[in-house]
Design goal:
Elements: E1 3-6, H1 8-13, H2 20-30, E2 35-38, H3 40-68, H4 76-82, H5 89-106, E3 110-111, H6 119-127, H7 143-159, E4 163-166, E5 182-185, H8 188-219, H9 221-236, E6 250-258, E7 265-271, E8 276-294, E9 299-302, E10 307-310, E11 313-331, E12 351-357
Parallel strand pairs: 1-2, 1-4, 2-3, 4-5
Antiparallel strand pairs: 6-8, 7-8, 8-11, 9-10, 11-12
Helix pairs in contact: 3-5
C-alpha cells in the first residue's frame, strides 16, 4: 500500500479541508486504499496558518459590515449578513481544530514520531545556507523543515518503508531518492490522479480475479465430480452406513453408480492476497447402489425356534446422496497468469452421507 506524507502547504493550498484533492486523499486513507502520514510539526503549522487566515477573514468581514453593507440592507440575505451575531475568533479557531483533528482520525492518519536528530549538522546547514535554509527569506524559518526532514529520513530508515512526500516546498527536493525510499512530489494533483488510476485498475483486476475463479471451477466440474467419486467410494462401500435401512443381514454391496448432474454452488470466502483466492465449494452427489440381502418373499418363520429361515437372496437398490462442503485456494494473478485446474483436498469432515430405500419393507 502506498505511504503518503502530507506537508502543511498541501492543506493550505487546498483551503485546508475544503479542496477536492485533499478530500480525495483523506477519503482514500479512510477507505484504507493508502496510508497517510503527518507530523506534529505539520499539524501545528496548519493550525497556525489557519489562525492567521481566520484573522484576515474576520478583519475583512468587519470591514464589510462597516463600509460595504449599506446597499445589502435592502435585500433579505444582506440583512442577515449585516446583523449576524458577533463572530468570536477563539470559538471559530477551536471549531476548526476539532474538525481538523477528527478528519485526520477518520482518515486513519498516522504520525511520524520525533526522533533523535543531529542538531549539529542542522545548524551547519543553517550557517552554510543549505536546504532547507538557503531558499528562505529568513533563514530561521527553515528550522521546522530541517527537523521535519530529519524525522522523515529516520522513519524510512527505521521502518524500511517507501514514502511519497507531498509538498510544494522546494526545500524538500534534496531528499528525493533518499535511500531509494523517498519520492518527493511537488504537485499533489499528479499523485491523486495516479492513485485513482491504480485503484480503478486494482478494482477491475479484483473483479476479474473473482469472476475467473467461478469460471475455472465451473469449467472443471467433470474433474471435480470424478475426484469426489473416487474419494467417497470407500465410504459408500462400507455396509455399516446402510444398517439403519435393513433388519436382515447384508451380504454384498455392488454396482455403485452416480448421477450425471451435481448441484454445484461456490462462495468466495476471502481474497487472501494478490495471488490467491479462497473459495468454498458445495454440491450434492447423488448415487445408487445394490445391496444383497435376504429375500423376505421366500422365507418361513419357525415358531418353535422363533427364527426366520430365508431360502434366497435379493438385490435391493438403495439411493443416497453425498453432500460435499470443502474449500480450495486458487491462484489467479491477472488476465495472463492463473491456474486452470481445481484440485480438491477432501477430508472426512467435508463429506456427509444420507441413504434411503424405496422399499419400506426393509426399514
Amino acid at each position: 500500500m502506498t505511504n503518503v506524507f502530507l506537508d502543511s502547504n498541501i492543506f493550505i493550498q487546498e483551503n485546508y479541508l475544503q479542496g477536492k484533492y485533499i478530500n480525495t486523499l483523506l477519503r482514500l486513507g479512510k477507505d484504507s486504499k493508502i496510508n497517510l502520514f503527518v507530523h506534529d510539526i505539520v499539524v501545528g503549522e496548519v493550525k497556525s496558518n489557519f489562525r492567521e487566515h481566520l484573522d484576515e477573514s474576520l478583519r475583512a468581514y468587519k470591514e464589510f459590515q462597516k463600509n460595504g453593507s449599506k446597499y445589502m440592507r435592502n435585500v433579505a440575505i444582506g440583512k442577515s449578513i449585516v446583523t449576524y451575531e458577533k463572530l468570536k475568533t477563539e470559538e471559530l479557531y477551536r471549531e476548526f481544530c476539532n474538525s481538523f483533528d477528527n478528519r485526520l482520525k477518520e482518515a486513519n492518519v498516522r504520525f511520524i514520531p520525533y526522533s533523535e536528530s543531529d542538531v549539529k549538522s542542522i545548524f551547519q546547514q543553517y550557517f552554510d545556507k543549505k536546504p532547507p535554509f538557503g531558499l528562505k527569506e529568513e533563514k530561521k524559518h527553515g528550522f521546522p523543515d530541517a527537523f521535519l526532514i530529519e524525522f522523515i529520513k529516520n522513519w524510512v530508515e527505521t521502518e524500511k518503508e517507501s514514502l511519497t512526500v507531498l509538498t510544494s516546498d522546494n526545500d524538500f527536493n534534496h531528499i528525493n531518492g533518499f535511500k531509494g525510499c523517498i519520492d518527493v512530489q511537488n504537485d499533489h494533483r499528479v499523485l491523486v490522479d495516479v492513485l485513482n488510476k491504480e485503484i480503478i485498475r486494482a478494482e477491475e483486476l479484483r473483479e476479474f480475479r473473482i469472476q475467473k475463479v467461478y469460471e475455472i471451477i465451473y469449467n472443471d466440474i467433470s474433474s471435480i465430480k470424478k475426484e469426489t467419486e473416487e474419494y467417497v467410494k470407500d465410504y459408500l462401500y462400507d455396509e455399516s452406513i446402510y444398517y439403519p435401512l435393513f433388519i436382515n443381514e447384508i451380504y454384498d454391496l455392488s454396482n455403485l453408480r452416480f448421477d450425471d448432474d451435481i448441484d454445484l454452488k461456490t462462495f468466495i470466502v476471502d481474497v487472501l492476497n494478490e495471488k490467491e483466492i479462497e473459495v468454498e465449494i458445495s454440491f450434492k452427489l447423488k448415487f445408487k447402489i445394490d445391496i444383497l440381502t435376504d429375500d423376505e418373499s421366500v422365507s418361513v418363520y419357525d415358531s418353535e425356534d422363533k427364527i426366520m429361515h430365508y431360502f434366497d437372496t435379493i438385490n435391493i437398490e438403495v439411493e443416497g446422496e453425498c453432500e460435499i462442503n470443502t474449500s480450495v485456494v486458487l491462484s489467479v494473478i491477472d488476465e495472463e497468469d492463473y491456474e486452470e485446474d481445481v484440485y480438491l483436498d477432501l477430508k472426512k469432515d467435508d463429506v456427509s452421507i444420507d441413504v434411503f430405500s424405496k422399499d419400506e419393507m426393509y426399514y
